[in-house]
Amino acid sequence: MRLLPLLLATTAVALPAEEHAAPAAKAKPKAAVQASAPATHGPAPTADAPDSPSAALAELSAGNARFVAGKRTRTLDSGRDAAMRAALVGGQAPFAVILTCSDSRVPDALLFDQEAGRLFTIREAGNAPDLQGIASAEYAAEHLGSKLIVVMGHSSCGAVKAVREANGKSLPGNLWALQAGMAGLLESTPQDPNEDAKAHLGRLEEANARRQAQAMLDRSALLRDLAAGEKLWIVPALYNLASGKVQFFKPLAAVPGPLPHH
């Protein structure tokens, strides 16, 4: 994928510090995807696409509620598949980026009940983005107009478990990259003497989602500028395999420009 020149936003507005609770949102009527493309940010979004970070998060929360209740609508309407494919040939305008684990049990489109063209998905074991993953998120946010980046971990994560059980010893083959991507996780979230392995793993999974979201923000001046200008939210989240529910945490606060040197 060739990236187009990236334009940096410069407005500096602080994001809210309190926990974000996405309001329950009703599914809006479906509309055909428009294939025409504006000059700077790709094709026009669908008529019911969220137009702000808060609306994008509300849409994901509502879609996940439908998934949990067994009442998916968008991902069950197969009668529109041919028309949807034809419309999307002209371009894409995903309203959200989902950076999640490669685990086959985390089907992001289904668990958020969103059809093709609405989510820009990046999958990395342990939801730990490398430089290519961060560049992909920048492309979606700057060029495609995505309003939200969700960095989503999940319960029973094999990548986090492998790093925990290695406890600092090198994993075989290229699995050392998992440890590099989660550097500092074990030190920041030590096991309590009265805590069993399962409980500790659960805390590590949440801590990893939060740390990876922060790392993405720290490593991208472009994303920081968009977030500081309230054009983008970066939100850590955790998916529960058993219940199907996604727990969203508060959007990360950001200040524009490069990080100060100490």
Describe the structure.
- This protein has 262 residues and is α/β, with parallel strands linked by helices.
- It has a domain at 53-154 and 217-248: Beta-carbonic Anhydrase, Chain A, CATH 3.40.1050.10.
- Helices cover 35% and strands 10% of the residues.
- It has helices spanning 53-69, 81-88, 108-111, 131-143, 158-166, 176-181, 185-188, 197-218, 221-228, and strands spanning 96-100, 119-123, 148-154, 233-239, 246-248.
- The protein has a five-stranded mixed sheet with strand order 2-1-3-4-5, with helices on both faces.
- Strand 1 (96-100), helix 3 and strand 2 form a beta-alpha-beta unit.
- The longest helix has 22 residues, at 197-218.
- The two termini are 35 Å apart.
- 36% of the residues are buried.
- Mean pLDDT is 85; it is low at 1-44.
- Give the SSE order as H and E letters: HHEHEHEHHHHHEE
Strand order of the largest sheet: 2-1-3-4-5
Q: What is the CATH class of the domain at 53-154 and 217-248? A: Alpha Beta
Largest sheet: 5 strands, mixed
Number of strands: 5
SS-based class: alpha/beta
Terminus-to-terminus distance: 35 Å
Mean pLDDT: 85
In brief:
This protein has 262 residues and is α/β, with parallel strands linked by helices. The chain has helices at 53-69, 81-88, 108-111, 131-143, 158-166, 176-181, 185-188, 197-218, 221-228, and strands at 96-100, 119-123, 148-154, 233-239, 246-248.
